[in-house]
Amino acid sequence: VSRQLKEEIRRGFAGLQDPLTGLLAMLENSSDWKGKGHSLGYYITTELQLWIKEHHALPQSGTQLKKLQARVLGILSQCPANLLDPLISIYQLHTADRNYLLEHVSHLYLKGDYKEAAVLSIKLKLQPDQDVEKMCTPLLLQDKVNVVEDYVREYPELQSKLLQILDTWCEPGFNVRDITRPYQGLSRYKPEKFNRRTLSKLVFRLLDRFSVDPALCPNVINQRHLRTLNYLFYKRFVEKTMTEENWADHVQSTVGENRWLQGQLLQLLLRHCEGRAAARWAQHCGVSSDLLPPSLAEHLQELHLQHRVEEDTKADNYEDSKKKDYYQLPIPRENIHFLQTWEETLQCWEKVLQPGQVVGIDMEWKPSFGMVGKPRVALLQMALKDEVFLLDLPRLLEQAEEEGEKEKLHRFIQMLYSDAAITKLGYGMSGDLSSLVATCSALKDTEKQLQGVVDLLAVDKQVDGQHSHQHTGARQPEKGLSLLVQHVLGKPLDKTEQLSNWEKRPLREEQILYAASDAYCLLEIYERLCKDPESFGLSSDLTESLVGKQSKKPRPKKQLNKQEAPSPSGQQSQGSQVESWRGPVPVPPRQLRVVCDNMLQGLGRYLRCLGLDVRVLDNGDDHRKAAEIARQEGRVILTSGLPYQTLRSQVGEGRCFSVNCSEKAKEQALQVLKHFNVRVSLSDVFSRCQ
Known about the structure:
The chain is of the alpha/beta class. The chain is about 50% helix and about 5% strand. The chain has helices at about 5-15, 20-30, 40-55, 60-75, 80-90, 100-110, 115-125, 130-140, 145-150, 155-170, 175-180, 195-210, 220-240, 245-255, 260-270, 275-285, 295-300, 340-350, 395-400, 405-420, 430-440, 455-465, 480-490, 510-530, 540-545, 575-580, 600-610, 625-635, 640-645, 665-675; strands at about 335-340, 360-365, 375-385, 390, 425, 455, 595, 615, 635-640, 655-660. The strands form 2 sheets. Strands 1-4-3-2-5-6 form a 6-stranded mixed β-sheet, sandwiched between helices. Strands 8-7-9-10 form a 4-stranded parallel β-sheet, sandwiched between helices. The radius of gyration is 30 Å and the shape is globular.
């Protein structure tokens, strides 16, 4: 605002005997303040607010103030949002009679001005005296979830109450129409946004946003666990990529003593297994005997408990005979060390923190299967040329806390990652570091201090076009690190333990060998690529770029993510990981082609507004349709939660990206743009048909 206008406004205040009454008279008789943007009325109002503050002017009190408050309440529901706070402050509405304010808000609600009633309640902090279900239901029907979040944001009790209400609406026998019936004439009513599936996603988003105990929402949690069970049965009996022990661990962990889930497990067992095998697995997974149908109970009587549970299903029995098809560790088993005490770990530190050392680093965590919270690292693997160290991170952190030396572990990890004299190898290190920070918050600045780090995902992108995608037998085609291992070392990794329960102790022998292989193979890949980069289609200066010179380059702001896709333009980044740290050439929006899963329709619309080539799944579409579209049209999948676990296995490495579902569409879009290095110009906005 020009100085001249400010001076004129303040001169007007000085000439008024009663500026508060004068401002109201102006607003009541003005039309321009009802539009968008900063109107003249807005500037006058905010200048009066400053003028009162600067002059310590005490507004009227008593009867006169009450009359002014009644008048200002009459215009608050119509005025722009940017005028609410100044007017509430000027006319001291927080001091007004609370019952009078509640009555006014109730009047707005009965008129059908639900959003206005909620916003005013938020501004005046009236929520504790209101019915959260009554206030929020019409807002949810109008898809105004952001207003609902604001309504309960500062009140943990209301957050819990709202989540319990939403969970009740997700009960299997609940009829959602009972909720929607009173609001059939609601303007901007979006019934397609109000169904059990959408409500379930909203509950998980709010649980994560407000850090509420998931136990408050048993219906939604049970449904999510049921989807996890379906996914586990798909991996074991359809895709056949999960071992028997691995599958059983997750099934037991998912079902526990929940009788409803035990009943669902029985139905799945009967669908996928013969009677005798179903009975054995029911017994193995601890299903209550009174839930068993007579046919299974008879089978159980015939079984001998001492016999090992054997599989009698359609799934392939992949045993040691197949090991010859996979990458094998070239070091003896006794050189793999599982470390659970600080005394054991000190030997690891002494060997790893040596100048000139090359270390392969990987991490494992229990799959979340779409549940609330970020994954926490359960195992940290460090491979040297002659041995591999497997660090039991939860146990080491627990021991450090017991001894009052919590900083010991994070100090070592920070020393390792910030030492330019030690070469650290990884594959998709950004995702690993993110989980490491979720496990140990003291490491939050580690990513800013990285030196001497080589992310082989960047190299993988360069050789990606040369990978052979052929595979033999019924085995799934290789992808990600396994495909790179196959291309460089001749055989892929055995990934059947990838989805293991890494938090369960003791680890099985198969898990120990898998974890050691994942870290050690990085050393062999690095050595082979440095010796002969040309044979893999890489530039001859790869060795010079990779060996020990990373520390001279600018530090990265953010490492590549394990999910990161190749450049949407199809161009491969030149040189090594070092080159990508300099900041790759930004990609224009029109070159990034994506398909959004149906829980991200808002994100899809937002990205299309920015000029991206977007396809969006309909509400009724199966998540797997996204994979079909991605393969047929060369698109990147944008999804979230449990579907990510399924979809990423159906497309190439980096062609499926998981978006944070707890964010709003704008924040999700920024996450996507940043991840794929897309730069939007003014000409891109609305360049595509909406």
